């Protein structure tokens, strides 16, 4: 009989914070798990706060679109906006070329959330 693997999300977050460049795929997986209520003892706010504490994120990382999509699918308006602001702070659209797919996903999500004023800024 196999036992399900148990882990402490706080340990996972601590390990992730030790990395110079965060693995956005890790964050997407954690948000998805939290959205599905798998992990009850940490919350998405704490996860996004930890991501904001990191000096830099890779805006050309394919995991970025996963994170944005998971936030949008979970209807996490505030967190989507915070990640978008973090992307802009880290050079999305200036240092990094705007990925059209990420921009499309963001535009649709922000429109759905009624954040029309932010939609125009996605392409700039």
Summarize the structure in words.
The chain is mainly alpha-helical. The chain has a single domain, classed as Tetratricopeptide repeat domain (Serine Threonine Protein Phosphatase 5, Tetratricopeptide repeat, Alpha Horseshoe), CATH 1.25.40.10. Helices cover 61% and strands 0% of the residues. 24% of the residues are buried. InterPro entries: THA8-like, TPR-like_helical_dom_sf.
Strand content: under 5%
pLDDT < 50 stretches? 1-7
The total tally of domains equals: 1
State the end-to-end CA separation.
55 Å
Secondary-structure element order, N to C: HHHHHHH
Estimate the global geometry from the Cα principal axes: globular
Properties at a glance:
TPR-like_helical_dom_sf, disordered N terminus, THA8-like, mainly alpha, RNA binding, Serine Threonine Protein Phosphatase 5, Tetratricopeptide repeat
Task: Describe the structure in brief.
GO terms for molecular function: RNA binding. This protein is mainly α. The chain has helices at residues 9-17, 24-35, 44-53, 62-73, 77-89, 100-112, 116-122.
């Amino acid at each position: 009989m196999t036992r399900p693997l148990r882990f402490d999300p706080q340990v996972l977050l601590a390990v992730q914070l030790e990395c110079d460049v965060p693995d956005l795929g890790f964050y997407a997986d954690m948000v998805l798990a939290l959205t599905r209520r798998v992990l009850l003892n940490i919350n998405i706010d704490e996860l996004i706060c930890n991501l904001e504490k990191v000096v830099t994120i890779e805006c050309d990382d394919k995991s970025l679109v996963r994170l944005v999509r998971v936030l949008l699918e979970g209807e996490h308006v505030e967190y989507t906006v915070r990640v978008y602001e973090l992307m802009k702070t880290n050079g999305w659209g200036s240092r990094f070329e705007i990925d059209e797919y990420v921009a499309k996903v963001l535009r649709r999500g922000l429109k759905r959330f009624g954040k029309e004023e932010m939609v125009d800024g996605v392409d700039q």
